[in-house]
Fold this protein.
Amino acid sequence: MLELGTTHRMEILRTTSVGLYLGLGDNEVLLPNKYVPESYEIGDAIEVFVYLDSLERIVATTLDPLIKANEFAYLKVTALSEIGAFLDYGLEKDLFVPNKEQAIKMLLGEYYVVHCFLDEQSNRLMGSSRLNKFLSNEELTVKRFDEVDLLISHFSDLGINAIINNKHKGVIYHNEIYEQLSVGQSLKGTIKLIRADNKIDLSLIPIGYKNIDPNANIIMEHLNKNQGVLMLHDKSDPDEIHRLLKMSKKNFKKAVGSLYKQKKIILKEDRIELLKT
Protein backbone atom coordinates (compact mmCIF):
# COMPACT_ATOMS: atom_id res chain seq x y z
CA MET A 1 0.00 0.00 0.00
CA LEU A 2 1.37 3.39 -1.00
CA GLU A 3 1.45 5.87 1.90
CA LEU A 4 2.35 9.53 1.65
CA GLY A 5 5.04 10.80 3.95
CA THR A 6 6.89 7.49 4.23
CA THR A 7 9.76 5.72 2.53
CA HIS A 8 8.96 2.90 0.11
CA ARG A 9 11.03 0.46 -1.87
CA MET A 10 9.60 0.67 -5.39
CA GLU A 11 10.27 -1.03 -8.70
CA ILE A 12 11.49 0.94 -11.72
CA LEU A 13 8.79 0.35 -14.35
CA ARG A 14 9.73 2.54 -17.29
CA THR A 15 11.53 5.68 -18.40
CA THR A 16 9.99 8.89 -19.72
CA SER A 17 11.27 12.31 -20.74
CA VAL A 18 10.45 13.68 -17.29
CA GLY A 19 11.87 10.86 -15.18
CA LEU A 20 11.24 7.29 -14.08
CA TYR A 21 7.92 5.73 -13.24
CA LEU A 22 8.07 3.57 -10.15
CA GLY A 23 5.57 0.95 -9.08
CA LEU A 24 4.29 -0.50 -5.83
CA GLY A 25 1.36 -2.84 -6.19
CA ASP A 26 -1.22 -1.06 -8.36
CA ASN A 27 0.33 2.36 -7.72
CA GLU A 28 2.65 4.27 -10.03
CA VAL A 29 4.67 7.33 -8.98
CA LEU A 30 6.98 9.62 -10.92
CA LEU A 31 10.59 10.04 -9.86
CA PRO A 32 11.61 13.34 -11.53
CA ASN A 33 14.80 13.46 -13.57
CA LYS A 34 16.72 15.42 -10.92
CA TYR A 35 16.48 12.39 -8.59
CA VAL A 36 17.13 9.63 -11.12
CA PRO A 37 20.30 7.65 -10.23
CA GLU A 38 23.23 7.68 -12.67
CA SER A 39 22.88 3.98 -13.39
CA TYR A 40 19.79 1.78 -13.20
CA GLU A 41 17.92 -0.95 -15.00
CA ILE A 42 14.22 -1.52 -15.53
CA GLY A 43 13.07 -3.83 -12.76
CA ASP A 44 15.54 -2.51 -10.20
CA ALA A 45 14.18 -1.60 -6.77
CA ILE A 46 14.88 1.86 -5.41
CA GLU A 47 14.12 3.42 -2.02
CA VAL A 48 12.22 6.71 -2.23
CA PHE A 49 10.21 9.11 -0.11
CA VAL A 50 6.68 9.79 -1.44
CA TYR A 51 4.82 13.06 -0.94
CA LEU A 52 2.80 15.78 -2.74
CA ASP A 53 4.83 18.35 -4.66
CA SER A 54 3.99 22.06 -4.99
CA LEU A 55 1.45 21.20 -7.70
CA GLU A 56 -0.26 18.67 -5.40
CA ARG A 57 1.00 15.72 -7.47
CA ILE A 58 2.17 12.51 -5.85
CA VAL A 59 5.90 12.27 -6.57
CA ALA A 60 8.92 10.38 -5.30
CA THR A 61 12.33 11.65 -4.26
CA THR A 62 15.59 10.02 -3.25
CA LEU A 63 16.21 12.86 -0.79
CA ASP A 64 16.01 11.88 2.87
CA PRO A 65 13.65 14.30 4.66
CA LEU A 66 14.34 15.57 8.16
CA ILE A 67 10.95 14.28 9.27
CA LYS A 68 8.46 11.70 8.01
CA ALA A 69 4.81 11.01 8.80
CA ASN A 70 4.24 10.13 12.47
CA GLU A 71 7.69 11.38 13.51
CA PHE A 72 8.95 14.34 15.55
CA ALA A 73 11.83 16.64 14.63
CA TYR A 74 13.35 20.05 15.37
CA LEU A 75 12.78 22.24 12.31
CA LYS A 76 13.40 25.82 11.26
CA VAL A 77 10.70 28.26 10.12
CA THR A 78 11.58 29.55 6.66
CA ALA A 79 8.44 31.54 5.83
CA LEU A 80 5.24 32.85 7.40
CA SER A 81 1.80 33.57 5.99
CA GLU A 82 -1.59 34.62 7.32
CA ILE A 83 -2.66 31.00 7.60
CA GLY A 84 0.47 29.42 9.07
CA ALA A 85 4.20 28.77 8.99
CA PHE A 86 6.45 26.86 6.61
CA LEU A 87 9.29 24.75 7.97
CA ASP A 88 12.32 23.37 6.18
CA TYR A 89 12.35 19.57 6.30
CA GLY A 90 14.94 18.89 3.66
CA LEU A 91 12.74 18.85 0.54
CA GLU A 92 11.96 21.48 -2.09
CA LYS A 93 8.49 21.93 -0.64
CA ASP A 94 8.42 23.08 3.00
CA LEU A 95 6.26 21.53 5.71
CA PHE A 96 3.15 23.61 6.43
CA VAL A 97 2.08 24.21 10.03
CA PRO A 98 -1.39 25.83 10.20
CA ASN A 99 -1.98 28.51 12.82
CA LYS A 100 -4.31 26.19 14.74
CA GLU A 101 -1.52 23.62 15.03
CA GLN A 102 0.95 26.04 16.64
CA ALA A 103 1.25 25.68 20.42
CA ILE A 104 2.78 29.17 20.42
CA LYS A 105 2.93 31.61 17.53
CA MET A 106 5.87 30.61 15.37
CA LEU A 107 8.51 33.16 14.42
CA LEU A 108 10.56 33.41 11.27
CA GLY A 109 14.02 31.87 11.61
CA GLU A 110 13.24 30.08 14.89
CA TYR A 111 13.33 26.32 15.47
CA TYR A 112 10.47 24.24 16.91
CA VAL A 113 9.87 20.61 17.80
CA VAL A 114 7.00 19.48 15.59
CA HIS A 115 5.09 16.35 14.69
CA CYS A 116 4.44 15.44 11.05
CA PHE A 117 1.04 13.99 10.17
CA LEU A 118 -1.05 13.30 7.09
CA ASP A 119 -4.08 15.58 7.04
CA GLU A 120 -7.09 13.45 6.08
CA GLN A 121 -9.05 16.30 4.48
CA SER A 122 -6.34 17.66 2.19
CA ASN A 123 -4.23 14.47 1.94
CA ARG A 124 -1.19 16.67 2.56
CA LEU A 125 1.64 16.35 5.05
CA MET A 126 1.38 18.94 7.80
CA GLY A 127 3.21 19.80 10.98
CA SER A 128 2.05 20.54 14.50
CA SER A 129 3.81 21.83 17.59
CA ARG A 130 0.88 20.72 19.76
CA LEU A 131 2.91 17.66 20.70
CA ASN A 132 0.66 16.13 23.35
CA LYS A 133 -1.97 15.40 20.68
CA PHE A 134 0.39 12.84 19.19
CA LEU A 135 1.90 11.31 22.33
CA SER A 136 0.29 8.73 24.58
CA ASN A 137 1.39 6.76 27.63
CA GLU A 138 -1.84 4.77 27.87
CA GLU A 139 -0.43 1.66 26.17
CA LEU A 140 3.33 1.62 26.64
CA THR A 141 5.68 -0.11 24.21
CA VAL A 142 8.66 0.22 26.57
CA LYS A 143 9.61 -1.28 29.92
CA ARG A 144 11.97 -0.45 32.75
CA PHE A 145 15.69 -0.46 31.86
CA ASP A 146 15.00 -0.29 28.09
CA GLU A 147 17.38 1.86 26.09
CA VAL A 148 15.31 4.35 24.07
CA ASP A 149 15.65 7.18 21.56
CA LEU A 150 14.88 10.59 23.03
CA LEU A 151 14.11 14.01 21.57
CA ILE A 152 14.21 16.90 24.04
CA SER A 153 10.88 18.73 23.66
CA HIS A 154 10.89 21.40 26.37
CA PHE A 155 12.05 22.41 29.84
CA SER A 156 9.81 22.43 32.90
CA ASP A 157 10.01 23.02 36.66
CA LEU A 158 10.65 19.30 37.17
CA GLY A 159 13.43 18.99 34.63
CA ILE A 160 13.55 18.24 30.92
CA ASN A 161 10.67 16.69 29.00
CA ALA A 162 11.51 14.26 26.22
CA ILE A 163 9.72 12.34 23.47
CA ILE A 164 10.40 8.61 23.70
CA ASN A 165 10.70 6.53 20.50
CA ASN A 166 8.31 8.91 18.68
CA LYS A 167 5.48 7.52 20.85
CA HIS A 168 5.59 8.39 24.53
CA LYS A 169 6.66 11.21 26.83
CA GLY A 170 8.89 11.20 29.89
CA VAL A 171 10.91 13.42 32.20
CA ILE A 172 14.60 13.68 33.07
CA TYR A 173 14.64 15.25 36.53
CA HIS A 174 17.03 18.10 37.33
CA ASN A 175 19.09 15.97 39.73
CA GLU A 176 19.60 13.37 36.96
CA ILE A 177 21.10 15.85 34.49
CA TYR A 178 24.90 15.91 34.36
CA GLU A 179 25.42 17.61 31.00
CA GLN A 180 24.10 20.60 29.10
CA LEU A 181 21.04 19.72 27.05
CA SER A 182 18.99 21.76 24.59
CA VAL A 183 15.54 21.64 23.04
CA GLY A 184 15.56 19.61 19.82
CA GLN A 185 18.55 17.51 20.86
CA SER A 186 18.38 13.80 20.00
CA LEU A 187 20.11 11.31 22.29
CA LYS A 188 19.90 7.88 23.87
CA GLY A 189 18.33 7.35 27.27
CA THR A 190 17.07 4.65 29.62
CA ILE A 191 13.67 4.02 31.16
CA LYS A 192 14.43 4.55 34.85
CA LEU A 193 10.95 4.07 36.30
CA ILE A 194 7.38 3.59 35.09
CA ARG A 195 4.94 4.93 37.66
CA ALA A 196 1.46 3.59 38.44
CA ASP A 197 -0.14 6.22 36.16
CA ASN A 198 2.29 5.29 33.35
CA LYS A 199 4.32 8.44 33.79
CA ILE A 200 7.91 7.70 32.80
CA ASP A 201 11.09 8.78 34.58
CA LEU A 202 14.13 8.83 32.30
CA SER A 203 17.87 8.61 32.81
CA LEU A 204 20.69 9.45 30.46
CA ILE A 205 22.82 6.62 31.82
CA PRO A 206 22.07 2.89 32.18
CA ILE A 207 20.20 2.02 35.37
CA GLY A 208 20.95 -0.33 38.25
CA TYR A 209 23.58 -2.99 37.72
CA LYS A 210 23.97 -1.89 34.10
CA ASN A 211 25.59 1.41 35.03
CA ILE A 212 28.42 -0.03 37.12
CA ASP A 213 30.71 -1.07 34.28
CA PRO A 214 30.46 2.14 32.20
CA ASN A 215 31.16 4.32 35.23
CA ALA A 216 33.92 1.99 36.38
CA ASN A 217 35.51 2.40 32.95
CA ILE A 218 35.40 6.18 33.33
CA ILE A 219 37.20 5.91 36.67
CA MET A 220 39.80 3.55 35.22
CA GLU A 221 40.42 5.91 32.30
CA HIS A 222 40.94 8.79 34.72
CA LEU A 223 43.36 6.73 36.81
CA ASN A 224 45.35 5.68 33.76
CA LYS A 225 45.63 9.27 32.56
CA ASN A 226 46.70 10.63 35.95
CA GLN A 227 49.54 8.36 37.09
CA GLY A 228 47.13 5.96 38.76
CA VAL A 229 45.70 8.52 41.19
CA LEU A 230 42.17 9.95 41.54
CA MET A 231 41.80 12.63 44.21
CA LEU A 232 38.29 11.57 45.21
CA HIS A 233 37.03 9.45 48.07
CA ASP A 234 33.91 8.33 49.91
CA LYS A 235 33.40 11.74 51.54
CA SER A 236 34.05 13.82 48.40
CA ASP A 237 31.60 16.56 47.53
CA PRO A 238 29.07 15.48 44.83
CA ASP A 239 29.87 18.61 42.81
CA GLU A 240 33.56 17.72 42.74
CA ILE A 241 32.74 14.17 41.61
CA HIS A 242 30.56 15.55 38.84
CA ARG A 243 33.21 18.08 37.80
CA LEU A 244 35.88 15.40 37.39
CA LEU A 245 33.87 12.40 36.21
CA LYS A 246 30.46 13.69 35.04
CA MET A 247 28.57 11.21 37.24
CA SER A 248 26.53 11.32 40.43
CA LYS A 249 28.02 10.46 43.81
CA LYS A 250 25.71 7.43 44.02
CA ASN A 251 26.99 6.03 40.73
CA PHE A 252 30.55 6.91 41.71
CA LYS A 253 30.28 4.85 44.90
CA LYS A 254 28.78 1.90 43.01
CA ALA A 255 31.56 1.97 40.44
CA VAL A 256 34.27 2.28 43.12
CA GLY A 257 32.76 -0.66 44.98
CA SER A 258 32.81 -2.74 41.82
CA LEU A 259 36.46 -1.90 41.09
CA TYR A 260 37.46 -2.58 44.70
CA LYS A 261 35.81 -6.01 44.61
CA GLN A 262 37.67 -6.74 41.39
CA LYS A 263 40.91 -5.75 43.19
CA LYS A 264 41.71 -3.09 40.62
CA ILE A 265 42.02 -0.16 43.03
CA ILE A 266 43.23 0.75 46.51
CA LEU A 267 41.10 3.03 48.68
CA LYS A 268 43.06 5.66 50.58
CA GLU A 269 41.70 8.20 53.06
CA ASP A 270 41.91 11.08 50.59
CA ARG A 271 42.21 9.38 47.19
CA ILE A 272 41.87 6.28 45.04
CA GLU A 273 44.93 4.56 43.60
CA LEU A 274 45.28 2.07 40.81
CA LEU A 275 46.45 -1.30 42.11
CA LYS A 276 49.76 -2.09 40.43
CA THR A 277 50.13 -5.64 39.13
